[in-house]
# Entry
Amino acid sequence: MMEQAVFNLIDRNQNFEELLREATEGVDFDNGSIADNQLIPHSTHHSAPVTTQTSLQHLSIEACLSCIQAQSHITGLPISTVAANECVKELSHLLQDHQRNDNEQQKRFAFLVLLLNKLVSEQTLSRTYFIEQLSSKVQDLPLELLWQLHACSAIRLDQYIECIVDRPMVLKKFAKNFSEICSRPDEGHNERKTIKRDVLEVLVRCGYSRPVNTLELNQRLAERSQMILDDTVLDLLKLQEQCMTKRDDEQSPVAHPVAELCQAIRCHPFLDKDIISRFTLRQLRNILCSHPEEFQVTEAIAKQHGEWTYSKAPQSMTSMFTQLLLANTDKQIYTVLQQALQDDTAKVNWHHTLVLVSVFCVCCKEGSSLICGLVSSLLSESFESCRVSYLYTAFLLARQASAERSCDFPSYNQWFKNQFATGSSPYLVSTKTVTFFMDFLNSLVPHEPVHYLKTHYQHRPSVPPKCQELITDYVALARTRIADFGDIPQAGSCGGPSMGQTSQTENQEAAEDVEKSVTAFKKTGLIPQKVLQLRTFRRPYYLRQFLPTLLSTRMLPEVPDSKMNLIDALKSAEKIPLPMYQRYTAACKQELNMLLEGVSIEDMEDMTFDPMDRLTECLDTLPQQLTAVDVSEASYYAETAEKLSLIPGKVSAVLEDLAPRDSQNPSVDFIVIDILEMNSIMPILMKVTDLLLGCYCKTYTLLVSSQRPCTALTEQFSSLLATQGSLHHPLYHRLFTLICHQGDSLSGGHVRSLSSLLVHMSALGKRLPHVKLQTQHGKLKEGEEPDHFTLLNLITRELQHRSGPAMELTLRFCTAVLESFPGDLKAKRDDIVPLSLKQKFCYLQPRLHPETRTEFISALGSQRGSLPTNMAENAGTSSSKSESWSSFGFKDCVPRKQQLDLDEWLKVELRVHSCQDCLTESQRKNYHHWVLYHCHLPQLIQSSEGQNPSSAYRTACAKILNAVLDNHSEPSGRSVQLCPHGVRHGQPGGESGRMGCGLGRDLIQILQELLLVWSTTLQEGTAPPSEDEGCSWLLREWETRLEKLSGQGTGLAMALEVSNQMMVMQSLQPHLLFVDCLWQIPSRSAVKHLTSYINTHLKEHVQDGFCSFPFEVVTVIFQGAMQLYTQAQRSGASAGRVDEVVSAIEDLLVECPLFTVSFLSHWDVLGHQTNPFSILNQLNTIIHKVWGDETQTSCPQADDGALHQAAPETWILIISSMKLLQCRGRNADHLSSLQENLICKLKEFFLEPEIRQCLFEYHVAEAAWLLLSNADDSTEIEDCLKVASSLLSKTPSCLKACTAGDSVLERDILPSLVTRLYPVICFRILLQSECQCVLRQARTDPQLLIALLNMYASLMTLHCHQPITDQRLDSRSGDQQIVNFEFLQSSLALVQGVIQQSSRQNLATVDVATLADTDPELANMILQRL
# Structure
């Protein structure tokens, strides 16, 4: 009890302040920092455990707590209230006691904070009361101490700020302390950085959070917090501007204070994005309107181009605006800028505003386009209301945006021309608007740089005629002002700041004039008269050549020389423009300073390296700079833009002497690429282009290898290239040649980088011109689409896939393009990626990578066809190889309607060279099976009526057949690549035979297999379609193709087509000429179609000899007949069915005498096999019986009487006999004797006149054939004429039969080209002396006379109206012509002689039709005789 009483007595008499003093004396705080000693356990950045308290510290704290409890007991107040009072009292006492040393005071503060921490942990401190007492008794609370109290949970910053809202002095002190701590650098001061971050968090939350209720306190708290932040930002901005004036002072406290403050808020992990956005937008408004009186509009006009662009503005200012922009969308920034510029109640700081515009254009994707819209809006409002402030604003914004060279904003020259110098300008339409605008331009003259004046001077505003005087006045004023700068532009030129360039001759003349003038002035001391004359009469030369040469920069001597004296005299006489003189003196002074004081590193580099070296250095360092940028920051896009923004200026410096500035973005519709005229591009342009592309590819590859995003680089680099109009031609040319001609040597990274660049260039749309490709013949390629495309489209079209390497390159490129779409471009992929690229990708990916075929089928949504098991397995399954493109896949990349259909696939596949294909023969076969059975046949089945498989197979067979024939029918003159064997694919030659090196043979094999599968789907006995009853599918397809060609009137094309059809037929089942399936019986309709095909197309285009088909054609047709006969026998069909087959074939033999004759000609090869066709056996027997051939005695006997009245058989026997006869000798006398022997033997079967008529026409036809095929060798022709002449002399009626035009030989055997020469051969026979008897008979024989008249009419037609269009006759001219003028006159004389000696009775029998058709001269002669 006594002990307790003693303790109570001590507590009641204890002094709290003395206890604190004693406690601090026993506690050692070496650093004097609570945070550094880790005594505050829940400090934000100090998470280390609390240091174990010493026994002395524990006793001191316990003593203080006991004292507080005793005081509470004495006063009757709660312990929490007493603790708050005592702590506040002690804090106030410590802050007011300035006599105490800092170390002791710091210890007291540290222990007091430690005590508060203990009170808070034991919940014996009233924090609300503590904050109220503290804010009322302590007006200047250091921010560091406030943060320490906040960190130990004694107070909350937001509550403290709420308490001081109504205490202006305390609030002012708090704002001042916060501004001061923000102005100090954070390097090496983690506590200060933490304080700043935590206070910023509280202020931003209080000021910009959406209030839950509308209490007045919350509103006042938000207003005060916003005010503190506003004042802080403006103070930092003022400090920043002061640092800009002392940029060389190393003691500057903070380089970028506002940017660092905004970055701390933007990157704060506990602040919501909306809160950050509201804060940055408010600060952006404040900065735009801060100190508006600092710069007037006229100062902005003068300084914006030279000092306020993105590359020239202080980095602290561009960084500040970059941080403010990153927290908001482009549209939000645009809204703030628009409101600030169009607010009549507030003025803007033009320096801040224009730098913001530059940062907005460079760092924001839509910045330039939004500024363009704002400028247009300001122009419209200014002219509508005649508000000059809006016009000033529009021009300042336009010049600022154009200076950044964005592809979305034209150059100033182009912008001014488009807005005011065209007749379609919407602004200068009345006297009022013109006067308003010209007054504005006049007000700009004293302040704006010379290159803007030149733009206005060159592109004079287009105004109504009545306002031309205003334009004249302005032009005179602008001209005078430009002359003050030492330059006289020419109206309509494209000059910029670099105008006034002189040729070497003019410079030499100016140097000579200066030297003479200085010499003359040295002698006389007066300005030479020649100089005065130059100024008066040759003022442009005086200002542009003479004065610049005279005022050349040099180190001036201490004693003025004659040149200096002349300059001073001219200046005193006001003969030198003041600005030119000032530039001269400044340059000379700078030259002197450089020599006396040395040159800075930057100036030395500018002097040492030319523009190309500086560009090269800039591009060399770019990859390392971009790889060092932190991709996790939201400012990555802006920092990338900042690095790239230096390139356009350096490129312009290189190209400044090559092209004027206003041509940097020319308005051309398209660019023509001519590979053969590469040397026409200036080497300097190609060098700059190669440097840019090389830098881009290197940077892209580094970013990819370091797993960094490349979208920002590619997007901004493409925009950069779009602004360099002079580089568009070499850029397009280089990209085209790199990918199309050098693609095999490019690495995968190179292809990916170029593909990504092409994608983003295409995304720019009309901001980049389209391109055309010039061919070797100087003509632009033509196609179904327009002949100009995007560069991506053109490159895709030119990439080939005829060989394995070409396929791999094309697939690499297509895959890279499809993978080059970032998130914001995916929605535009269908518009950017050309259809040809999608189709090539879907063609090549499954062809070269079988593992992707399942994905392809899934994208098609088709079901598998009826493939055999082994083929289905070879179709491929998914594997890891498809991971590189699975991000987009077939389904996302290409809609089904845009994929290659079967026709397109066949056309592409047939162009592949088999000798260079990357697939082996077995792999290619599996691929063809997969395409047909898995991709296209299911689609054909679904699209057919009733999903009929038979119809689908038929369609597929037709498509393959037509594709192969089309491939073989390509004109030889078309530019087609050759395979290494020198063979054009699809054409004869080389080791591959008739099929060439294309894949026609492979597809023919597929067609054979498909036909077999199709035949199994046809049910035996099913009637053929009614519209083509009995006609085979193959003939129907051939006839359709020939009908299309016949309408085009191309005989050579028809011949090539028929030849190709026969070539393909040799690879197919021969029975397809007759029927679709072997079990079918050829109907009369089928035989009729085949007969027509043989007698029309084969007869005209396939004969390789006189009256003879080639052996392979005869073999194919005969084998088809034998297949049908053999199948009928093997299938166990009835005898009647076999007879039907034989009857149908024999009908064909009778109706196609040319085929029968050709077969008999090859009897030695084909006749040894069992021949069921009796007509062939009978004909062969008769032929060899006539000639007494003992080797054929085993042939069956013919029924001779059956042949007497059959005209085709007559011709067959005669032609076959004559061909056999001619094999034994070609001599005319020998032929005549053998011919007479033949006539005698054939009398047994036919009438002699009929035989002689047939033989005569045979010789006429053979002579005509020889005339066409072998005109140079006339011996055989003469033999034929001689034999025919002997026949005609004995039987003149032969002439009438030959010219009747209805013989079997003329109708069914000979080509029309031969029969058209009948009149030529007949007149050559009649002109011989042996035929005078025929002419004498014609005088009395009306029919013979009419035959002569008709023959001459045909001869005239052949000569005049319808010349023979055959390739073999094209080279004939003059005497070599078949029907020359001399021959025509001889024939005319012959007919005239017959008419003149004919009786009137004979002439009267000539009918009117014959007179109308014959030669008018002959017709008149006959009429005169009558």
Q: What stands out?
A: Residues 702 and 1246 are 96 Å apart (CA to CA).
